[in-house]
Write a structure and sequence with these properties.
Blueprint (H helix, E strand, L loop, with lengths): L2 E10 L2 H12 L2 E3 L5 E5 L12 E6 L10 E5 L4 H14 L2 E2 L10 E4 L5 E4 L12 E8 L2 H11 L3 E5 L3 E5 L7 E6 L10 E7 L5 H11 L2 E2 L10 E4 L5 E4 L4
Parallel strand pairs: 1-4, 5-8, 9-12, 13-16
Antiparallel strand pairs: 1-13, 2-3, 3-4, 5-9, 6-7, 7-8, 10-11, 11-12, 14-15, 15-16
Protein name: Enzyme related to lactoylglutathione lyase
GO molecular function: lyase activity
Pfam families: Glyoxalase_6
Length: about 240
């Protein structure tokens, strides 16, 4: 049994506008699987596929304004590309953000609804990831979180230290998942969470039971009777297990 990371889920006040921002930012297309949802994925992409972690933007009545524990880092190929991408993102509605980062080579920004993300300087490790270099999860204990997530998913653990851990699809393609040590990470509900999916033929309930044995807990987010299962990881980050597909 195994799970794969298939998408990042954004809660939004205006799913259509925020979805279009991220589509334009990443150079991807948009579609919709139902009311209140905008799906953002590469053109001519057959979902799910490890070459990309897609973005799902879902409308909620009152998205919280909080310090987020999950954000995206965007990849660039050169200093010129980084400058051009930052300028294009500003034209699309993003704005620079000061979170006390000081003088760093990456650029911290906020999307039109305030979700933080970074535009990285060119780094060799991210040259083959696609537009999303890494999905970053702020945490207190990267080693413990790496142990959970590397057993929860079929992703490969590439690096782990006291300060960070880095995983990637076992296929060696697509973005990374990075667990970053952060003092006092926020404990409020995330506006951004991860969606995992079993492989075809695997059983959703069995996967959820396996996650419980690894330290995950059930989460009641007011989701009601839905086809996915809402859980939290050992540090309280929300995530969902979708039906196999």
């Amino acid at each position: 049994m195994a799970l794969r990371l298939v998408q990042v889920n954004f809660k939004a006040g205006d799913h259509s506008a925020l979805g279009q921002f991220w589509a334009d930012a990443l150079g991807w297309g948009v579609s919709s699987e139902g009311p209140g949802i905008t799906n953002v994925e590469p053109f001519e992409f057959t979902w799910p596929d490890p070459t990309a972690v897609c973005v799902d933007v879902v409308s909620v009545p009152d998205p919280e304004t909080v310090n987020y524990r999950i954000h995206l880092d965007l990849a660039t190929t050169s200093a010129d590309h980084q400058r051009e991408l930052v300028q294009r993102l500003k034209e699309l509605g993003a704005s620079p953000a000061d979170i006390g980062q000081g003088e760093v080579p990456w650029v911290v920004m906020a999307d039109p609804e305030g979700n933080l993300f970074c535009v990285l300087e060119p780094r060799p490790i991210y040259q083959d990831t696609g537009p999303i270099a890494t999905v970053v999860v702020n945490c207190e204990d990267p080693r413990a979180m790496a142990d959970f997530w590397s057993r929860a998913m079929d992703w490969t653990l590439h690096e782990v230290t006291e300060e960070h851990a880095r995983l990637r699809s076992s296929k060696g393609v697509g973005p990374y998942l990075e667990l970053l040590r952060t003092p006092d990470p926020d404990t409020l509900q995330n506006r951004i969470h991860l969606d995992l999916m079993p492989y075809p033929g695997d059983d959703q309930a069995a996967e959820v039971a396996r996650l419980h044995s690894l330290g995950a807990h059930d989460a009641d987010l007011g989701q009601g009777d839905v086809s996915w299962k809402c859980l939290t990881d050992p540090e309280g980050n929300d995530f969902c297990v979708l039906r196999p597909g």
